[in-house]
Amino acid sequence: HVPRPQPRPPPADITPPAAFDARDIYEGQAPCKAFQVLDQGGCGACYAFSSAVSFSARLCSTDPSSSVRNVVISPQSLLDCAQGGCTGGDVLSTLASLVDKPAVELWCDPYTGAQKACGSKCDTSNTYGAEPGSVRQVGGAGEAGVVQMQLELVRGGPGVVGLTVMSDLFSYSSGVYSPSASATLVGRHAVSLVGWGEDNGVAYWICQNSWGADWGERGFFRIARGADTCGIESNKGLAVVKPLIEPLCPAADCAYASTTLRDCSCQCPAGLSGPQCQDCSLSCGGGGAAVDSCTRCECPMGVWGGDPECNSGFQLSSLASCGQDPSRITVQYSFSGAGRPPTQTSF
């Protein structure tokens, strides 16, 4: 067994900023989907979720506007191929598995809360792997280790940290967390580290949890920084991996809501066809037009009916003033088709 080397002090001329949040660094661009909080449920798959979030965020940082890079890889893909399954697993080996067993996107392999056979997924998603030899542990406890973790966050993006879970973490709702004196040890946990800051003189880390968006600060939490609270700094520091980056396809290549695959071909949803999914096959009757990425028909004024018929409507027969009061009118109209008007209109 060879112990991990101690963190080396960063160069004297490099100082981390006072605050940093990976969620905010792409101002004016598409937000990274990686920061959508997920829920692991009753399965002990925190290592898979935190690894998926950190990998996805690092991939997104290369080009948030790209539909090929701004994705969420499936925690289920990582869980299925891990050793521990729902009883817990090792973050470093999980990240390393992306070299030989690339993951697919979340929509292709949705989370089930249980381990399935490795590789059981759809066949139409892009796959995302890691560069060989790129898994690293950065920083650790102490001032030098904390600074190294901060600099890695700025340069490369989020990573995974481990911590001990105390009983009062479950009831956390906001603020900078430190366990109370009466809190008891529950177990170990892995989360994604996304930033840091300071609140009234209290330094903190910002972490993305996998307990759902209704926990904590919309699924995130702040925990004291620099004091190795719950072992967040001494437990292997920051675990990171470098996504394997392949050339991007030309911009605006796939129309509507279609997906650009890694070979630059377009995966067309139902109703669309053509090389760029530019042809809409939805035929709308009654003068209707296909809208919302070719998913439904919009009927002209005075016409309604279920998609795609637009087969019912009304016809205005006459319009005349009533008596001596010009503010009152009489309207005569008739309905056609099997449908009825969608709303009752008064005149």
From TrEMBL:
One of the protein's GO biological processes: proteolysis
Highest taxon above the source species: Eukaryota
Residue span(s) of domain Peptidase C1A papain C-terminal: 16-241
InterPro entries per record: Papain-like_cys_pep_sf (IPR038765), Pept_asp_AS (IPR025661), Pept_cys_AS (IPR000169), Peptidase_C1A (IPR013128), Peptidase_C1A_C (IPR000668)
Matching SUPFAM superfamilies: Cysteine proteinases
GO molecular function terms attached to this record: cysteine-type peptidase activity
PROSITE patterns: THIOL_PROTEASE_ASN, THIOL_PROTEASE_CYS
Family: Belongs to the peptidase C1 family.
Name of this protein: Peptidase C1A papain C-terminal domain-containing protein
Organism of this sequence: Cryptomonas curvata
